[in-house]
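[job 4471] stage=fold_predict status=RUNNING
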Amino acid sequence: MNSETALIAAAKCGSVAAFTELVASHRVRLLRFLVTRTSSYADAEDALQDTLINAFRYLRSYDAKWRFSTWLYRIAINNAASMRVQDTEQIGELCDEESGPLEQCIAVSERENLWISAKRVLNDEVYTAMWLRYAEDMSVTDIAAALGRSVSWTKVNLLRARQQLDAAMGGSKKKAQASEAYG
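[job 4471] inference complete, writing structure tokens
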């Protein structure tokens, strides 16, 4: 029996210390994931707290046939979805006339960020699949389980997402080259 399995068993018996140790290695990654799924860092922290509370509350329902991290991400996805504000269109409008140079620099940097671009181009579920695959290095099987989708759906949508991002990035690169050529 590995240490995660032992910690899960102890936590299921009510050990707060075991649960704390069990989720300690997942906290930073979960928070990073939730920051991309919510409208602010504070919302991400709230979603993380709700995720951990729900995980502790429903730990008895955890099925060992899935990885523990997959189960945690499923809870996090549900929590982020329940508190998410539909503001993805406003991400590109980070910079306004009243902001100072630092805010404008940050806004430009964020617009250039691949994940910000992906959030604009992809729907929420496909964006989540991309994040879990490439930022969290989860397997396609675990992603499918976390999203409640089939492995085939996951593979197809990861491929389509890569193609969409390539087209979106290639399109902006071609526009930049054309504007340089015409001065």
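[job 4471] summary: DSSP finds ten helices and no strands in the chain.
[job 4471] exit 0
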